[in-house]
Amino acid sequence: MIATDDSSQTVADRPAFFLKLEESIVSHKTCQKSFALLLINLKRFRRFNLSQGYLIADQLLQLFAQRLTSMAREQDFIARVGNAEFAMILPEILNEGHASLAAIKFINSLTEAFSLSGEQFYVNAHIGITLFPEHGLDAKELLQNTEKALSDAALNSESYALYSTETRHSDIQVWDIEKDLQRAIEQDQFELYFQPQVNLKTGKLFGAEALIRWKNGDKGFVRPDIFIPVAEDNGYIVPITQWTINAALWLKKEWPQSQNPLKVAVNISTRMLSQPDFVEMVQGALRIHDTSHEELTLEITESALVEDLSTSFKLLNELKSQGINISIDDFGTGYSSMAYFKNIPANEIKIDQSFVRYMLENQMDQHIVQTIINLARGFDLKVVAEGIEDQPTFDGLNLLGCDIAQGYHLAKPMPQQEFINWVKSYNR
Q1: Which end of the chain is more exposed for a tag (fewer CB within 10 A), N or C?
Q2: Are strands 190-199 and 205-216 parallel, antiparallel or unpaired?
Q3: Which residues pair with 211 in a beta bridge?
Q4: pLDDT tens, 164-190?
Q5: Cα angle vertex 188, ends 197, 225, to 5°?
Q6: Using CA atoms, how far apart are residues 91 and 112, in angstroms rounded to an integer?
């Protein structure tokens, strides 16, 4: 068992959890009441393990367990059932809404940083939820359905998910997406949309982020947050990324000319960093489309960067040394650490929109934004803020010293011709 800072609370191990689950089924069947089963998985914990080491990772788990027990009721049961997975049995839960409120409470408790070795770390989690007897009459069925709910939460990038009839078909849906993706690659069903980026100080157009869109013949538009995770798992992300880089550079040739060449930013997945020929592929695309290295920006999420620091840093440093811009996306949402930040191979960082959107109403968000900007200044990095939805936020970011703005206040992502028309109108 894992001891917590409260001597009356412990986090049980896996065998104890299975015993408690069986006991809970018997007792709640007798009293004809419901209980909730929650599976909680820490996002990207393997990456944290690799970047920070097992000792720090184990300390983080200890603190996470303490956080869970401090938020739980006295009658709730908590166990660690996997490397970074915890299970909770919540007795006498009234309904699905009651269980959801409990999950939200646990998720909200993670907004406060964990302090380890003098540094601050933020973690996020996915939670899968089932109720007995509604979602399973025995331990095996209940666990299977809770795991499916957890998988559904991860697949849809949600903090938590309740098991439902829709969840039952999630595995089939993934298989359908895999088959459709193969057809999409063969039949060139993808399209690029572009969202403008503007220099906050001068008001001049800086460039645009290229965002992939997939219009399936039968299903219509399939959201990127649905098909991208599937593509990463089965390897289709490699040809999709190759297509995206080449399409972005090709379409960029049609953009209106400006005094300073506009930059086009392309998102790069974790999987691409492990491709041995990735650098050659990028160089080849730039040669084919006769584009300057400085006009291309490769965006990689902070969490992807730390999955394998040595490999990521080596590859990105090589690209950066050739003049290609490297941007760290979703900054502030991963396992931020000065240990890697001081050597970060990047030209810019993008503040995650979750901090930008409510920074005028939430003092903590504004403080985070200001801290990131100040940190970037010390390392001579540009700062891009995404998710700007109104003029006051735009002005506020300018006052804080942010460099580049992106968001619906400027323009939504647009197909090529609509973007070209927007650029002409903006320049006028």
Answers
A1: C
A2: antiparallel
A3: 193
A4: 755 444 444 555 777 888 888 888 899
A5: 55
A6: 27
Would residue 292 be called left, alpha or beta, if left means φ above 0 and alpha means ψ between -120 and 50 degrees? beta
Task: Tell me the average pLDDT of the chain.
Answer: 85
Q: How many domains is the chain built from?
A: 2
Domain boundaries, position 137: 2-168
Please tell me whether residues 160 and 268 are part of one structural domain: no
**Sole residue written with tokens 């940190």:** 375
| Cα gap 125→110, rounded to integer Å | 8
Which uninterrupted H or E stretch holds 4?
Answer: none
Place of tokens 């909680």: 40
From CA 195, how far away is CA 258, in angstroms rounded?
Answer: 17
Name the one residue in this structure whose structure tokens are 């460039």.
Answer: 207
* DSSP structural state of residue 324: -
Residue owning tokens 């408690």:
20
Cα–Cα distance between 201 and 213 in angstroms, integer?
31
pLDDT digits (tens, 9 = 90+) for 84-124: 889 999 998 878 888 888 888 888 887 777 888 777 777 78
pLDDT at 307: 62
- HSE, side-chain direction, 13 A CA sphere, residue 16: 14
Helix (H, G, I), strand (E, B) or coil at 112: coil
- Which of 168, 196, 211 delimits the end of a domain? 168
DSSP code of 12?
B
Q: Which DSSP symbol is given to 389? A: -
Nearest to 268 by CA among 204, 215, 324, 322: 324
The CATH number given to whatever domain includes residue 250 is: 3.20.20.450
Segment 120-162, tens digit of pLDDT: 777 788 899 999 998 888 988 899 899 888 888 887 777 888 8
